[in-house]
Amino acid sequence: MDKVRITEIAKELGMKSKDIIEKAIDMGLDVKAPSSSINTEDAEKLMNYVLTGESPNTPKPISPLKSVEVKKAEVVEKPSIVEEPKVEKITPTKTKTLKEKESEVLNTEPLSLSVEQKDDEMLQGDAEEISEDKNDPTNVRKRRGLVIVKKKRPEKEEQLIEEKKETHLSYGSQEQEKSRSFDSIFSTPSNSDLQKKKKKVKKLPAEKKTNAEKLDIALNIEMTNTHIDSDEEDMIVLPDLNEGLKVTEEVKKKKQIDPSQIRTTKKTNFVMQGIQRVGRKKRRRTVMTQEAEAISAIEIPEEIRVYEFAEKMNKPVGEVIKELFSLGVMFTKNDFLDKDSIEILADTFGVNVTTVNDQEAFDYVKAYDEEGEAGEQNLVERAPVITIMGHVDHGKTSLLDYIRSAKVAAGEAGGITQHVGAYMVEKNGRNITFIDTPGHEAFTEMRSRGAKVTDIVIVVVAADDGVKPQTKEAVEHAKAAGVPIIIAVNKMDKESANPDLVKAQLAELGITPIDWGGEHEFVPVSAKTGMGIEDLLETILLQADLLELQADPSREVKATVIESSLEKGRGPVATVVIEDGTMRVGDIVVAGIAFGKVKALLNDRGLAVKEAKPGEPVVVLGLSEVPGAGETLISVKTDKIAREYAKKKAEYLRQKELSKSTKVSLDELSDMIAEGALKTLPVIIKADVQGSLEAIKGSLKKIRNAETKVNIVSAGIGGITESDVALASASSDCIILGFHVRPTGTVKERAKSSGVEIKTYNIIYDLIDDVTNIVTGLMAPVIREENIGQAMVREVFAVPKLGHIAGCIVTDGTINRGVKIRVIRDGVIIYEGSVSSLKRFKDDVKEVGKGYECGVGIEGYTDIKVGDYIESFKEVEEKAKL
Ligand SMILES: Nc1nc2c(ncn2[C@@H]2O[C@H](COP(=O)(O)OP(=O)(O)OP(=O)(O)O)[C@@H](O)[C@H]2O)c(=O)[nH]1
Question: Which atom of ligand 1 is nearest to the CA of 400?
Fold first, then answer.
């Protein structure tokens, strides 16, 4: 059975919950708090009681006329009963006696509310059951879908409504219900005759619709917004007629309505301004089935927005959103639907949904590959692409440096490799391309990308240090990429070098050396002395031979972006490794959202070249945007095609990004609300290159716990600009973090004037450490307890003015005046307070040390006993750690 809360009733009646509770208690209802619920019947009785003062517990004196009248009604022919109007004018077939008597009955009841029974089935029964047992609890079940209206209408208004009704004779059968008393609606016929009649009335479906309309007229209120279907049973509507009644002044004057306007209906249209519980499922299902018949199968792209889906379904977008909402997910019309939601929607709407790959429209890589497969291939051997990975300081840069015979490591800030670079070396007349990925943990994500573009991974392990976390990570990445791994056991020049330990540790990770029966090459090297380097290069070439790396240099180019940045005077710059084909100056290329005509190509030494062959690294100038690292670049025939691809991709990514930011599930929503309590550090990150930016973003996102987190307001490549400062000043406490970028004079000034802090770094560790420190500063300090001392109570003195004083001996540490103490009895803490007085003999002291006797007064505590222990302690605030 439906329940209604006291608060709801109070709200409806414009009264305080407390008053309603009082009335409810008066009525004998079990109600304690405003949140208590009562069933709808009690709710109605309660409202009636509150409004009329008439307790439903005290049986209403029923006029003898009433029963007479009802009996008469029973005798009346069915049709006349059904159409029996209250007002004589309305239906000529009505029995005047009944009407008159009804009004007499009403007159005898001081009820200021009237109940209108709109349902035919109730109508008949009710008419007859007036004389029946009104308090029969079984009667209650008859009423479903109540509409309780608190508002009393002035007599004038009601009269007017009555007049209006008269003009709608077709509704006559319901009219008779209008002034029916509340009790009469609740009562049910107890004799079988009445029930029979009721059944007959039920068979008149045509009546139902008219009921709803008639009610509209009767109340003269706007009900257009909320249509509740007649099959929506189990509905409780407590509308606010203050809102709903939009009666013009003129009309108001004319209106004469019966003062009792409480209506109890089973099925009705009604204003849903108040409380409502509406079982809508039935209606929706019906609608769906109908529409599903219209469209039984649709084809949609993998990425589809809500409104697009609605269009395909030929449904209003609101309906789709509503459906999603009922599934617990909030979508806006522009949001992309995820696979699960599409499946559920397809199921709900009963359509077959086939997804077609929409991305193919701008999948230039696929088009390139298909073209290659179709055409004749002039395959030639290409240079292997090698990625060096390994734990920090195990010698990646030194190794590559030695190989290239150039001192790269010496020039780097802090000795850490900041950027991904690609370099080519020659060995035995063949080229080998190296991609250098940095060893810092923050670059993990970028490394994983690096592993994908490479043919072979070299994992550098320092022979004196063995396998470390990043060694494991490197192995995992290489394994995931499915590329062969060569182990360079470095620092073999060191005395502490232990290559066997390295072998054993790696064997545990599934990387077993060939000389141990495995399939992995372990090459002992020294980046310092150059020992084993030639062996390493030869091993690489042997491995490359096994891979049979080939490409067709006669084709148009396909390359992978290794690194990209925005350079002053050069614009977007991308380092790419050619996978297939040849890249030439003047080529029209597209790489993700970037496109353009190749203005210049620079080799790994920074020298301008005209072309780059498969396997070679090259720096590309002339792109419209900074392409993302890991993006595939291809050349296309015309600028238009390139532009089109890039535009579609950009739009696609933009929409996806938008979708991500707006699509929130209800669960997420509540999480977000919970997160409102979170303290966040808003930051704006600016970095010189994409790789560093990604790495910083990744690391900062990890700096969080349940209480605090870093909120990346914006992140971009390039120098710190005035608009960055403006953005930072717009959000409180936002700082700007610059990596390898510096603010210029005006930006600095603007930051100073708007109180925005700019922090710049050259070393990624420093940036992360600083942010970690700031974030931990945001955390609530941790309160740590420090024990000071303990004393045993030997005697208890009652001292005038001071109360009970514990005569103690300090057994440990010190007892100090004013510090916090605990009283411990039989090992259990029985009191916590502070030392109010501390005496040595007669003197007040601040501190008493171990082994000394003292008198301790405890603030607010007199129940001290011999044998108790007093433990003194202090609370120390400590900075929270992540
Ligand atoms: N003795 C000895 N020292 C080496 C060898 N290789 C590298 N080192 C030293 O080890 C330290 C770290 O070398 P890097 O090449 O910077 O190591 P990395 O792995 O590139 O470090 P990150 O770029 O910071 O990840 C430097 O001081 C090198 O001089 C080697 O074979 N023998």
Answer: 15
| Sole residue written with tokens 């900074």 | 626
pLDDT (tens digit per residue) in 721-738: 887 887 787 766 788 999
Residue ending a domain, choose from 597, 628, 663: 663
Sorted by sequence, the CB contacts under 8 Å of residue 347 that are 6+ apart come out as none
Nearest-CA neighbor of 88 among 99, 80, 102, 78? Answer: 99
Residue 26 covered by a domain: yes
The candidate with the shortest Cα–Cα distance to 355, out of 311, 319, 316, 304, is: 304
Cβ of 479 closer than 6 Å to ligand 1, yes or no, is no
Domain that holds residue 312: 297-358
Do residues 392 and 472 share a domain? yes
Instruction: Tell me the HSE value of 440 on the side-chain side, using a 13 A CA sphere.
Output: 21
- pLDDT tens for 57-113 read 554 444 333 333 434 334 333 443 333 334 334 333 333 444 444 444 444 443 333
Are 528 and 587 within one domain? no
End-to-end alpha carbon distance in the chain: 51
Q: What's the domain count of the chain?
A: 6
- Assembly ipTM: 0.98
Cα–Cα nearest to 66, from 105, 95, 100: 105
**How distant, in Å, are the alpha carbons of 345, 429, 490, 650 from that of 133?**
50, 110, 99, 75
pLDDT given for residue 358 in this prediction: 58
Pocket test for ligand 1, best of 391, 398, 399 (most atoms within 8 A of CB): 398
Q: Is the CB of 409 under 6 A from ligand 1?
A: yes
Predicted confidence at residue 10, as pLDDT, reads 79
3-state secondary structure (DSSP) of residue 701 = helix
Distance in Å, CA 551 to ligand 1 centroid = 35
Within a domain: residue 723?
Answer: yes
* 396 C-beta closer than 6 A to ligand 1: yes
- The string of pLDDT tens digits covering residues 270-309 is 333 333 333 343 344 444 444 444 678 888 877 788 888 8
Q: Which residues, at least 6 apart from 212, have a Cβ–Cβ distance to it below 8 Å?
A: 118, 230, 267, 268, 269
Q: Give 3-state DSSP helix, strand, coil % of the chain, rounded to 5.
A: 40, 25, 35
> Cα–Cα distance between 222 and 247 in angstroms, integer?
9
Q: What is the pLDDT of residues 445-487, one digit of tens each?
A: 544 444 467 889 899 999 999 998 888 878 887 787 778 999 9
The answer to the question of residue 147 being in a domain is no
Q: Measured in angstroms, how far is the CA atom of residue 462 from the centroid of ligand 1?
A: 9
Instruction: Identify whether residues 727 and 827 lie together within a single domain.
Output: no
Whether residues 436 and 516 fall in one domain? yes
**392 and 412, same domain (yes or no):** yes
612-643: burial string, b at 16+ Cβ within 10 Å, e else:
bbbbbbbbbbbbbbbbbbbbbbbbbeeeeebb
Centroid of chain to Cα 210: 46
Q: Residue 729 is inside which H or E element, if any? A: helix 722-730
Which atom of ligand 1 is found nearest the CA of 529? 31
Is residue 170 assigned to a domain? no
Annotated binding-site members for GTP? 390-397, 436-440, 490-493
Between the CA of 394 and the centroid of ligand 1 the distance, in Å, is 5
* Ligand 1 site-directed mutation target among 393, 418, 468, 473, most atoms within 8 Å of CB: 393
Number of Cβ within 10 Å of residue 502's Cβ equals 25
Specify the residue with its C-alpha closest to ligand 1, atom 6: 395
Q: What is the pLDDT of residues 517-559, one digit of tens each?
A: 888 999 999 999 989 999 999 999 999 999 999 899 998 999 9
The β-bridge partners of 792 are 809, 869
Could you tell me if the CB of 491 is within 6 A of ligand 1? yes
* Mean predicted confidence (pLDDT) in 710-716: 84
Judge if the beta carbon of residue 524 lies within 6 A of ligand 1: no
Q: In terms of domains, do 642 and 676 share one?
A: no
Q: CA 620, CA 627: separation in Å to the nearest integer?
A: 11
